[in-house]
Design goal:
two-stranded parallel ribbon; 241 residues; 6 strands; elongated; two-stranded antiparallel sheet; binds 2-acetamido-2-deoxy-beta-D-glucopyranose
């Protein structure tokens, strides 16, 4: 009996779940590093992640380019995107590529270009709403920018049967834009910046999103199990010995 319990303790301690620190890790996608760490040279809008990042300097420089080599994605598919709007897409790219605190929202996917994605990351209300407001004068032809493009020229173009419309015709509300544009990578929330309950795309100074990830990681019911099981087994073993 004792041996079985000790074995159980050992197995659960060694299980791979424990090796991933949910609140400090990098997702297995196209450009992210394997593990987070300091990156002193991160570029412009991505600079806030310098202390601890999943992106490299090169990725962050590319993130500021039109038709960057990251995804060959063309922001200007319905005329030139305004700078006011584009800064949010750059910030969104920085957040996606650099953030080491997305663990609680990482989902496995079977895609040729990535094994993991983010799903329903609770975005702070202001970050979503200013993004939407700053894009009000822009145009697009699609609601979901992840799929359905005409890639025949190498960059994404509006597929036949769609037409360029005002952003607000495609996305009538901030929520519709933040949630639909990247197939639910983000979830709209009414949590405010600094509340500790939502993720900020924009920040200066120390990264406020670590505490948010810790809050949601602790809330996830399964997350306590890997700690709890070995603890219980060790206690049982001590008790029975
Ligand atoms: C990033 O690295 C790639 C591959 O080495 C290179 O082709 C590209 O020019 C670099 N981008 C920047 C902005 O330095
Ligand atoms: C970050 O600092 C810059 C420069 O001081 C400022 O313009 C910007 O509003 C600040 N952003 C946030 C999210 O605090």
């Amino acid at each position: 009996m004792l041996r079985v319990i000790l074995l159980l303790a050992l197995v659960s301690v060694a299980s791979p779940v424990d090796n991933v620190d949910m609140v400090n890790m990098c997702m297995n996608a196209k450009h992210q590093k394997r593990t987070p760490g300091p990156e002193g040279q991160l570029y412009k809008q991505c600079a806030p992640w310098r202390d601890n990042a999943c992106c490299t300097a090169n990725t962050t420089e590319e993130a500021h380019e039109d038709n960057s080599n990251l995804y060959n994605f063309n922001w200007n598919h319905c005329g030139t995107m305004t700078p006011a709007c584009k800064q949010h897409f750059i910030q969104d790219t920085c957040f996606y590529e650099c953030s080491p605190h997305l663990g609680p929202w990482i989902d496995q996917v079977d895609q040729s270009w990535r094994k993991e994605r983010i799903l329903n990351v609770p975005l702070c209300q202001e970050d979503c709403e200013t993004w939407w407001k700053d894009c009000k004068l822009d145009f697009t032809c699609k609601e979901n920018w992840h799929k359905g493009w005409d890639w025949s020229s190498g960059i994404n173009q509006c597929p036949i049967g769609t037409k360029c419309q005002k952003f607000t015709d495609i996305f009538p509300t901030p929520q519709s834009m933040c949630e639909k544009i990247w197939s639910n990578s983000y979830a709209y929330t009414t949590f405010k910046r600094g509340s500790g309950r939502c993720m900020q795309m924009w920040f200066n100074g120390s990264n406020p999103n670590k505490a948010v990830a810790e809050y949601y990681a602790a809330k996830a019911p399964s997350s306590n199990l890997p700690v709890f099981l070995p603890l219980l087994s060790v206690l049982l073993a001590l008790f029975l010995s």
